[in-house]
From TrEMBL:
<dbReference type="Pfam" id="PF08239">
    <property type="entry name" value="SH3_3"/>
</dbReference>
<keyword id="KW-0378">Hydrolase</keyword>
<dbReference type="InterPro" id="IPR051202">
    <property type="entry name" value="Peptidase_C40"/>
</dbReference>
<dbReference type="InterPro" id="IPR000064">
    <property type="entry name" value="NLP_P60_dom"/>
</dbReference>
<feature type="domain" description="NlpC/P60">
    <location>
        <begin position="147"/>
        <end position="267"/>
    </location>
</feature>
<comment type="similarity">
    <text>Belongs to the peptidase C40 family.</text>
</comment>
<keyword id="KW-0645">Protease</keyword>
<dbReference type="GO" id="GO:0008234">
    <property type="term" value="F:cysteine-type peptidase activity"/>
</dbReference>
<dbReference type="InterPro" id="IPR003646">
    <property type="entry name" value="SH3-like_bac-type"/>
</dbReference>
<dbReference type="Pfam" id="PF00877">
    <property type="entry name" value="NLPC_P60"/>
</dbReference>
<keyword id="KW-0788">Thiol protease</keyword>
<dbReference type="GO" id="GO:0006508">
    <property type="term" value="P:proteolysis"/>
</dbReference>
<dbReference type="InterPro" id="IPR038765">
    <property type="entry name" value="Papain-like_cys_pep_sf"/>
</dbReference>
<protein>
    <submittedName>
        <fullName>SH3 domain-containing protein</fullName>
    </submittedName>
</protein>
């Protein structure tokens, strides 16, 4: 059985209570698999990237027909940090919802409104409007040049700069290290493991550090970052409190010795040349 996340951000906890560890967040429109049935007001779910946790029942839509239709027809993503969904295509309109970057929506055909606005359908069936420039089709890796992908994934990671660090977070409201890297890849059409390690069944493979290029991933004990080129990397650091840029070069003002000297692996989507 599957369900659709209908909350802006649905918390996934280690135990079926809100005081337990936050291990992940599901964003609006994501379809999750129900692994275990109800435990009070919670269900145990599995995300498309194989992360599991307890989610509140109130955050989910369980209707099998709606889930099936949503999976087939919801093919667009919010790329803006935050996007209001309005009742009418004008800024003075009432708000249906506010969605964050990475939320999944369905765009409806409508030639009657200004191109500045797109008509969209939410998972609940409600119809509203949002700025056309804030949304786009789900991206796929097929046909994308390696250099273009590398540039794009770095720019996506940089769009989260100064976002506060949040353990288990993966939105502009707060994001952790693996949340940042996995979201940057997901928004560019690639699902990687949502944790600070390389896992065989996912597309990131270990390479020698001498072959590192922009967009590749740096792994440290319990931490992950994205390499930007020129010895720089972007990451969401518990020590830095937010998404920031640091350097592997000890002569750079943003050098962090604690990370530069503890790299455990380098991962890449592309085979080393």
């Amino acid at each position: 059985m599957k369900a659709i996340i209908k909350s802006k951000v649905a918390n996934l906890h280690a135990e079926p209570n809100s005081k337990s560890e936050l291990i992940d967040e599901g964003l609006y429109g994501m379809v999750v698999e129900i692994v275990k049935q109800r435990e009070n007001d919670w269900v145990y779910v599995k995300t498309p990237y194989q992360y599991e946790g307890f989610c509140r029942i109130e955050d989910l839509i369980f209707d099998p027909q709606k889930v099936d239709t949503w999976q087939k027809e919801a093919a667009s993503i919010i790329y803006q940090g935050f996007a209001d969904i309005l009742l009418k295509p004008k800024i003075q309109s009432s708000k249906l919802a506010t969605l964050v970057r990475g939320s999944i929506i369905k765009v409806l055909p409508n030639e009657e409104i200004n191109k500045e606005w797109s008509m969209i359908q939410l998972a609940t069936g409600e119809v509203g409007y949002t700025r056309s420039q804030w949304i786009g089709e789900k991206l796929e890796l097929n046909g994308v040049l390696e250099e273009d992908f590398r540039n794009r994934v770095v720019q996506t990671a940089l769009s989260y700069l100064t976002t506060p660090y949040r353990w288990g977070g993966k939105s502009p409201l707060g994001i952790d290290c693996s949340g940042l890297c996995s979201m940057a890849y997901m928004l560019n059409g690639v699902v990687i493991y949502r944790d600070a390690k390389i896992v065989d069944r996912f597309p990131i493979k270990e390479i020698n550090i001498e072959h590192i290029q922009k967009g590749d991933l740096l792994y440290f004990p319990g931490h992950i970052a994205m390499y930007m080129g020129d010895d720089l990397y972007v990451h969401s650091s518990l020590g830095g409190n937010e998404v920031s840029i640091n350097s592997l070069n000890k002569n750079h003002i943003n050098y962090r010795e604690d990370l530069a000297t503890t790299i455990t692996a380098v991962g890449s989507l592309f085979p080393a040349k």
